[in-house]
Amino acid sequence: MAGSGKDHDGRRIAFLGTGLMGAPMARRLIAAGFSLTVWNRDPGKAEPLTAEGAVRAETPGEAVSGADVVITMLTNAEAVGNVLFERGAAEAMAPGATVVDMSSIAPHFAREHAVSLAERGINHVDAPVSGGVVGAQAGTLAIMAGGDEAVIAALADVFAPMGRVTRVGPSGAGQLAKLANQQIVAVTIGAVAEAMMLIAAGGGSPAAFRDAIRGGFAESRILDLHGKRMVERQFAPGGSSTNQLKDLNAAMETAKVLSLTLPLTAAVHAEFSEFVANGNGEKDHSALLLHLEEKNGRRGEDQ
Amino acid sequence: MAGSGKDHDGRRIAFLGTGLMGAPMARRLIAAGFSLTVWNRDPGKAEPLTAEGAVRAETPGEAVSGADVVITMLTNAEAVGNVLFERGAAEAMAPGATVVDMSSIAPHFAREHAVSLAERGINHVDAPVSGGVVGAQAGTLAIMAGGDEAVIAALADVFAPMGRVTRVGPSGAGQLAKLANQQIVAVTIGAVAEAMMLIAAGGGSPAAFRDAIRGGFAESRILDLHGKRMVERQFAPGGSSTNQLKDLNAAMETAKVLSLTLPLTAAVHAEFSEFVANGNGEKDHSALLLHLEEKNGRRGEDQ
Questions:
Q1: Is the predicted pLDDT of residue A5 greater than 80, yes or no?
Q2: Which residues neighbour A198 within 8 Å (Cβ) at sequence distance 6 or greater?
Q3: What is the pLDDT of residue B3?
Q4: pLDDT-derived band of residue A299, with 50, 70 and 90 as boundaries?
Q5: How far apart are CA B106 and CA A112, in angstroms?
Q6: Nearest CB to A264: which of B130, B199, B267?
Q7: Bridge-based pairing state of the strands B12-16 and A163-169
Q8: Residue of B239, B236, B133 lying closest to B188 (CA atoms)
Q9: Which among A126, B74, B281, B295 could bridge B276 via Cys, Cβ 3.0 to 4.6 Å?
Q10: How far is CA B299 from the centre of its chain?
Q11: Residue A62 has pLDDT above 90, yes or no
């Protein structure tokens, strides 16, 4: 194991999943003085971290052995379940240790993992993030946490190097917040795309329209960033429409479990479903404008 | 007439409609050195401006006589049409003068007015505003202009004391931009309300959720201002749901004229229609959250 952490009560962290997001997050923890053991399914993605002081483990079980905090940053719920319960991580963890799952998965999976781990005396916090690779590198991620209040509070110095943590509620609430965040993003993209469509169809200039309304009640990060992509007709991702649809699928599934009718979420889900089914999954989610144009038999300048 | 304008080539302005918005706009023009003649249907709302140097006229015709620029700031298209074509304003204007209609009316009415005025050799610019009474007082309105480029450019010093002008396109495009702006506002309110609903139904804290996602991709003026109202359950208007519905009705009507399908606009229009039909028109538009709660058989804390 690496040398004991400097200012962190000697706590040791295992970091499982050192991909695009996980690697920069792990780096920031190392830089903050934590002892890190890292594991990745493809070991080539974990190896570079050893140069910065991490110890690379061959298996999830080996990585978590002796760890106080186990952070998972994996592709989906299946991968998280696999690593925790099939590849031996949960089994190798000591009672009293804590799993912090920072992957984005559906809330009910997070609650299932929490229940299974609780049976072994292991704490679980769901703590998905927003902010992308840039936020991971800069340590400015928005971390949405669900789980026991005291457990989350005790992780303050673990979260601090990665970003700003907010406890949103009990187990699963962090994942719920991530979904709700993505749902706002999707609906707001739809709002801006429909406005651009209306302006263009009515003979106005979408670029001038966007300039005119900046800073008013319609102002948003989406109007700023995605509105610009729509005006410039630059639809390379960014965030792909496939990923946006994946989030919306999870939001709709969660709404169904809760017996909720969410009309705008349902409407934008239907549009992204069509858009991706038509082969546009790899376009940026702001390209929903192209879908609207297609639907209305109108073509933008670049088509 | 009042003394000639100081730095404005002696141009004289008639201001028709000195209500909640019009009065502070007229005040800023007077302060900028323009000679102003003012008229209001209820003369009591025009009279106070005479103390600041405006001349009050008894009729629209008297007000516009000798004016180079006629600004209208009236309730709706009917009022604008009435003042211009039935109460004698158009008839009393000199060819080469310009009507700047800053009222919010449907784009097709704006184009009709432009055509009728053009027949008399009078220019027309539609220039509705966003920013409310506060923006009118501070001279920070967003002014969305439609009409001839040279005519709008020649009005630069007239617009300057009132706010920031952007030409969005030809006649009607200013009104179109105002509608599209209001449509983004409505859909974004719906996005935030549905997210709040999802969080609350799933056992999370809407207040903590809002805190967690501030500054990320879901950030907007609506999340800031209207999201706060939802969290605090303060639904006094602000912007009433009746006014929001009025804008959405106009947006839907315009979309229909243009043969456009706008799924999110249609969805939020349906929700506001129901909400207002259920007697909630005087609540702030952020109260769409209450409608969602009602629709889903869930009640918020204050009900």
A1: no
A2: B176, B179, B180, B183, B251, B254, B255, B258, B260, B262, B265
A3: 42
A4: confident
A5: 53
A6: B267
A7: unpaired
A8: B239
A9: B281
A10: 33
A11: yes
Task: Say which residues have a Cβ less than 8 Å from residue B190's Cβ, sequence separation at least 6.
Answer: A187, A263, A264, B264, B267, B268, B271, B288
* Domain residue ranges of chain B, discontinuous segments joined by +: 13-169, 177-295
Minimum distance, in Å, between the CA of residue A224 and any CA atom of chain B? 10
Q: Is the pLDDT of residue A302 over 90?
A: no
**Distance separating alpha carbons of residues B14 and B94, to the nearest angstrom:** 13
For residue B2, the model assigns a pLDDT of: 41
pTM score: 0.91
Beta carbons of B269 and B201 less than 8 angstroms apart: no
Q: What is the pLDDT of residues A220-232, one digit of tens each?
A: 999 999 999 999 9
Query: Do residues B288 and B275 touch, judged by C-beta distance below 8 A?
Result: yes
CA A67, CA A72: separation in Å to the nearest integer? 13
Please give the ipTM for the structure prediction.
0.92
The pLDDT of residue B64 is above 80: yes
Asked if A16 and A71 count as a contact pair (C-beta separation under 8 A), the reply is yes
Structure token digits, residue A134 = 């840039």
**Beta-sheet pairing, A141-146 with A129-130:** antiparallel
The answer for B 41-100 residues in CB contact with A (under 8 A) is none
Please list the active-site residues of A: 178
For residue B178, indicate whether it is catalytic.
Answer: yes
User: pLDDT (tens digit, 9 = 90+) per residue, B141-188?
Assistant: 999 999 999 999 999 999 999 999 999 999 999 999 999 999 999 999
Mean pLDDT for chain B?
Answer: 94
Instruction: Work out the minimum CA distance from A210 to partner chain B, whole angstroms.
Output: 9
**H-run or E-run covering B85:** none
Chain B residue numbers with beta carbons less than 8 Å from the beta carbon of A260 are 197-198, 201, 296
Average model confidence (pLDDT) for chain A? 94
How far apart CA B5 and CA B10 sit, in angstroms, is 5
The predicted pLDDT at position B238 comes to 87
The mean pLDDT value for A93-108 works out to 96
Using CB atoms and an 8 Å cut-off, which of residues 187-206 of chain A contact chain B?
Answer: 187-188, 190-192, 194-199, 201-205
* Range scoring the smallest mean pLDDT among A241-255, A283-297, B7-21, B164-178: B7-21
CB-nearest to B185 from A168, A209, A218 is A218
Hey, what CATH topology would domain B177-295 get? N-(1-d-carboxylethyl)-l-norvaline Dehydrogenase; domain 2 (1.10.1040)
Mean pLDDT of A87-110: 96
Enumerate the residues of chain A whose CB falls inside 8 A of the CB of residue B222.
217, 220
- A142 CB near a chain B CB, below 8 Å? yes
Assign domain A13-169 one CATH number from 3.30.2350.10, 3.40.50.720, 3.40.50.920, 3.65.10.10: 3.40.50.720
User: B141-146 and B163-169: which strand pairing?
Assistant: parallel
Could you give the C-alpha distances from B210 to A5, B228, B237, in angstroms and in order? 34, 8, 21
pLDDT at A300: 67
Specify which residues B16 forms β-bridges with.
B39, B72
